Amino acid sequence: MKKPLLWLAMLVLVLSTFLAACSGGDTKKTTTDPKEDDKDNAAEETGPQDGGTLTYALSSEFKGLLNWNFYDADGDDDIIAFFDDALIDYDENLKAQPNIASWTTDDNKVFTFTFEKGVKWHNGEELTVNDWVFAIETIATLGGEHQRWSNVNTIEGAKDFNEGKTDKIAGLEVVDDYTLKITFDKARVNNLENVWAYPLSRKEFEGIAPKDMAASEQVRTKPVGTGPFKVAKVIPGESVELVKNENYWKGAPHLDKIVVKVIDSSLTTGELKNGTLDMTPFHPTVLPEIEALDNVEVVKSPGLSYYYIGFKLGKYDGKKNVMDKDKYANKELRQAMLFAINREEWVKAFFSGLGQPLNRPIPSAHWIAADNKDMPVQYEYNPEKAKEILDKAGYVDKDGDGFREDPKGEKFTVKFSHYATGNPTFEARAKAMTQYWEEVGLKSELQMTDVNLYYDQLEKDDPALEVFYGGWGTGTDPDPLPLWGIESVWNYPRWVNEDAQKLLEDAVDLEVVGTDTEKRAKLYADWQKIFNEEVPALPILELEEVMAVAKRVQGLKIDVSGTNSPHEWWIKQ
Questions:
Q1: For the chain, how big is the Rg over CA atoms in Å?
Q2: Keyword Zinc, does the record have it (predicted)?
Q3: What percentage of the chain has pLDDT greater than the value 90?
Q4: What stretches of 312-442 adopt beta strand conformation (E)?
Q5: Engineering a disulfide at 7: which of 134, 135, 271, 432 sits with its beta carbon 3.0 to 4.6 angstroms away?
Q6: Between these two residues, 307 and 19, which has the higher pLDDT value?
Q7: CATH assignment of 303-544, given 3.40.50.300, 3.10.105.10, 3.10.310.10, 1.10.10.10?
Q8: What b/e readout covers 34-54, taking b as 16+ CB neighbours within 10 angstroms?
């Protein structure tokens, strides 16, 4: 029988303390008061009720980039979704649907978009297609240093504009205030899904250079949008107060106010139980406690996110990724490190059964996901195999201290970084990873870094980060190119593989795949096989999405595409 790992024993102690802080210890109660039943029936008969404040919680400090065009971390996007609408929506099948904009195309290269008339920014200005052009030009000005460059650089002339060869983007033609024609550099299957569809108010950002926008009050403390709620007050990193937008283009919201606040995750269950919190995503470790509450429902939906352990293989030079770091360049080393991890055990311990291991970087909810069993390397937990691979690759213990030196005979230490928040399980799960590696002879060091500094270090290729824990919400477009392409700044490992790049480019090229979905899926499967063998990042798990929602909250709908518009939500009085 395998000896239980020390970290599992430690985890029991951590979680028992953590969950005890969350639980009030009461048994479940059911309401039998006939007056309450009458009130519920009355609400159902009268339909949505107006008024009330919904309190929404985040478990860690938000970064505070409160604009779709500049945000780059979880938490900020939760807040932005309350006050700014996208031009394009997606249904439960992840198919694009008109929202503010509708469109037509005959060839998937030239699209004509038409805006709803009368949609207004919170500053009173009417939204026009010029605001969309402004957003695209802003991103194109910043080019490769902007995370959304891959969402605009396929527009005809965007690269010339970035390089200063022209003062306008050739592929953007403003027909009138409500009509924009966009011509892409070639016909692609996913030009619509990939294009950046979030306008930027020209009025608000007038006179501010693109490089200074992210730090401006228009992004940090006084953001405006076109959505159902308006930002009234921001306390950076702590809370945001939003009030109803009476002039919302889809109709005034039912709720008067939404308050987003940051709370320590150990307080989540208590606040839900006491009724001081209405809605929150939560970490799976507290699932049993939240499911025990009689005034709260746990809403689950298929996840579009996955978690991985990445290796810094190089740097981003401002235009493209360059693999020029040697320490983790040996793919056998990376493969051995994945064989060394008992992912089943780890996921069960830290994610309450809401996650499952995977061998490719595509969540199963996406139609392009290849079957795990079709991957060329099946990374089952096998520490003996990990040791064998390391031996053959030249990572052996030459000085008898119990840890392996590198093939040159020099000391070798896996320097592993993980972001730190208020969640006490994060350090425990990170330590578990280092212990797995040490059990196969790889000396390891753990560095816990404040979450906001952590992502800055990742993007800037700070040498302090060598091996890192990360995660991606892949969004509605399954195309991996914006995350793993050679020119993508979000390709944090800085992985470069020409064969893999060609597969991703071909998979969206109409001249190659036409409208043949099966052919496109085959190319994506071939790409996943390359990734599976190269493992520039170790796929750890895909995660089911969960939300705790107070039963007094009505009108909420959640599916794989996210929630419905909060203007439809209401509180049972």
A1: 25
A2: no
A3: 77
A4: 315-316, 321-322, 355-356, 413-420
A5: 432
A6: 307
A7: 3.10.105.10
A8: eeeeeeeeebeeeeebeebeb
Helices (DSSP H) in 471-542: which residue ranges?
A: 481-484, 498-507, 510-513, 517-534
Structure tokens at 246: 């009476």
Entry pTM:
0.74
Q: In sequence order, what E strands does 62-177 have?
A: 88-90, 96-98, 101-105, 110-115, 172-176
Q: Where are the domains of the chain?
A: 85-215, 303-544
Residue 114 backbone dihedrals phi, psi, to 5 degrees: -125, 125
Contact 72, 146 (CB under 8 A): no
What is the band of 104 on the pLDDT scale with cuts at 50, 70, 90?
Answer: very high
Would you call 255 helix, strand, or coil by DSSP?
Answer: coil
* Range list of β-strands (E), 398-466: 413-420, 443-450
Count of Cβ atoms closer than 10 Å to residue 426 Cβ: 21
CA 284 – CA 117 distance, rounded (Å): 43
The mean of the pLDDT values for the chain is 90
Answer whether 54's CB lies under 8 Å from 444's CB: no
* Residue 518 burial class via C-beta count within 10 angstroms: exposed 0-12, middle 13-18, buried 19 and up: exposed
In one letter, which amino acid is 308?
Answer: Y
Single out the residue of 146, 135, 148 nearest to residue 182, CA to CA.
135
HEC string for 201-243: CCCCCCCCCHHHHCCCHHHHCCCCCCCCEEEEEEECCCEEEEE
10 Å CB burial of residue 97 (0-12, 13-18, 19+) is exposed
The length of the chain in residues reads 573
CATH of domain 85-215: 3.90.76.10
Q: Which residues contact 475 (CB under 8 A, 6 or more apart)?
A: 304
Q: CB within 8 A of 62, min separation 6: which ones?
A: 73, 75, 76, 78, 79, 237, 240, 262
- Do 303-544 and 85-215 have the same topology in CATH? no
Judge contact between 475 and 436, C-beta under 8 A.
no
Q: What SS3 class is residue 303?
A: strand
| E-state strands within 106-249 | 110-115, 172-176, 179-183, 229-235, 239-244
**Given the structure tokens 């460059």, which residue do they identify?**
149
Distance CA 298, CA 365 (A): 20
